[in-house]
Amino acid sequence: MIQNSTQIAISTKQPNGYVESTLEYTNKEISLTVADVIVQMLENLGVGCAFGVAGGAMASLWGSLSNSTMQVLNCRHESGAAFAAVEAYFASSLPTVVFTTAGPGITNALTGLFAARGEGAKVILLSACTSAPQRGRWAIQETSAETLPTEGIFTAGTLFNYATTVECAAQIPQIFRRLALGLSQPGGFVAHLSIPTTVQSSLVDKISLPQLGISSSVVSPSRDAIAKTVHLLSEGPFAIWLGFGARDAADEIRQLAERTGAAVMCSPRGKGIFPEDHPQFVGVTGLGGHGSVMTYMQQQPPLRTLVLGTRLGEPTSFWNPKMVPAGGFVHVDIDPTVPGVAYPQAETFGVQSDIKGFVQALLDYEELLVTAKTPLSLPNPEPEQIPSGADTPVRPDVLMEAIQKVIVDGSDAIVMAECGNSFTWSTHLLRFPQANRYRVSTGVGAMGHAVTGVLGAAIASNGKAVAIVGDGAMLMNNEISTAVKYNIPAVWIVLNDARYNMCHQGMAMLGMTGADATIPEADFAMIACGMGAEGIRVHKESDLQAALEKAMRATGPFVIDVLIDPNRPAPSKGRNQGLAAQGAKSTPAKTTSAHVSFPNI
Q: What's residue 578's pLDDT?
């Protein structure tokens, strides 16, 4: 209960940090529940969107969310809600919420939250749990130490940066402080607040949230670190290897590259941070990457490589030893544990820093700009010539050519690619001239991430978002019905080949036979129409452009079901060779078509 002119000082999250503000309740009594107060706290932490699936155990919390200023989307599955929340964060840079009921509601969301942690998103899970008097008594969807492991789900650890169970209102000020601090830090932050059913609806007599002045913190490089970096990079030609963590420093990185003549390459998640049509861009590394990168490393090897915002994990590097320059790496990351892990044998000078601040500091040093040696020319990813052929079935590379023209070049839509062959075709063939338009998940790479995440990207960007997905992922988990309910302008482009084709083609290349990766052909245009969305089926290459243009003009959800050639080999040579190197098969089977991609060996 709040009575008479009570002021509550809180911190409001803005895109550039936290600022203090005050809520004032005057001349009336307002009865608030714990659920109400928690939702107000989230509003004032800057949460704009909440995605989830309701249930009886979280009825009070759901009611408070539904009457808040947040945009609340009721999804069809908790994992889809979590993936949508991840992509809403990346589209808006504002923290997002996932809400679930007890029991399976929580466990269904865990894969998406695992992706949130791996991708570096800021997401808060609100879940219901069984009230204390009912624990251990076989309650419906009981959520307690009797039914679920407490460690890792209800406590901080590898999945959650912060987790707690709210047993009383007195905890809320400290929870608010912990959330505000976590959200203000660079990098991702995934939290879990689990609230027993009876606690959600309990009334709050007094409320006093702390007055916080927490600003967004930036990890700045030391003068010594910058000086040593300048010294190392000035000793000879260097390359720049970009990852997703460098996405906010696109302008500064371009200045550094152009002043020094450095070659620039990027991870799959880093596409577009440096313009892919720039003459100094030598290509994408890793899964679906470009052979031009290896051409550069072999013909014009740099003395050192400046690594900015990538962990250099398997999807980015395949741990290929040919990517290690003679002088080693200068590796910059906000996480001090990252440098030196992917290539432990390589000489690495690690720097803990925000990427933008680090590059700005480098630009102040004229010594670097004067002594860096500029290559005369650099290899670039070459547009691949597609020979003329039959109009049907649709070749995936022809589809990508049409997507480039209509969607990448012809709009400002966010483009997402699902894991599998959709990922490799899109990463290898699409070219993005600007940052923050292409999204893929590499570390987790869950099927269903893009087919559901596209809703979050569209709703948070207030515009079109396009998901390039396989038929297997589309069957596994989609939120077309949710998009219809809220008229979200999401577009799905389905590569329909009636199989899990990365598995099918990969097994063949590895020389393994007998494994069944086929699935019955589904008509996704008919499925979409049955759910209330628009859909169109494309059999011919000559019909692609018209179908894409129609989808981009649509004001609501739209599915393009493309019957593609299942025998066209995807650019995933590096992945298959990486599996072979790990023991999946030592001698790949012979194939009749060459795989052109960033190689592993």
A: 45
pLDDT at 13: 40
On whether the pTM is more than 0.85, the answer is yes
With respect to residue 165, please indicate whether it lies within any of the assigned structural domains.
Answer: yes
- Which residues are CB-neighbours of 530 under 8 A, at least 6 positions away? none
- Residue whose token pair is 């075709």: 425
| CATH number where 415 lies | 3.40.50.970
> Quick one: 256 and 404 in the same domain?
no
Spatial distance between the Cα atoms of 145 and 57, rounded to a whole number of angstroms: 17
Same domain, 434 and 498: yes
| Nearest to 97, CA basis, from 55, 61, 139, 151 | 61
**Residue 357 structural domain:** 223-371
CA–CA dist 560, 404 (Å, integer): 15
Same domain? For 135 and 284 the reply is no
DSSP 38: H
Sheet holding 162-165, edge to edge: 71-74, 49-52, 96-100, 122-129, 189-196, 162-165
Both 487 and 574 in one domain: the answer is yes
Distance, CA of 517 to CA of 500 (rounded, Å): 5
Domain match, 410 and 265 both: no
Domain assignment of residue 597, yes or no: no
- CA neighbor of 44 nearest in space, from 13, 6, 7, 16: 13
Same domain, 305 and 443: no
Q: Does 343 lie in the same domain as 418? A: no
**What's the CATH code of the domain at 363?**
3.40.50.1220
Same domain (yes/no): 172, 233 = no
pLDDT for the residue 422? 96
Residues 6+ apart with CB under 8 A from 207: 2, 6, 8, 32, 37, 169, 172
- Please tell me the predicted confidence (pLDDT) of residue 208: 63
124 touches 98 (CB < 8 A): yes
Q: Which residues of the chain have pLDDT under 50?
A: 1-28, 370, 372, 574-582, 586-595, 600-601
Computed on alpha carbons and rounded to an integer, the radius of gyration of the chain in Å comes to: 25
**Exposure b/e, 341-378, CB count within 10 A at least 16 = b:** ebbeebebbbbbbbbbbbbbbbbebeebbeebeebeeb
The angle formed by the CA atoms of residues 211, 195 and 17, to the nearest 5 degrees, is 35
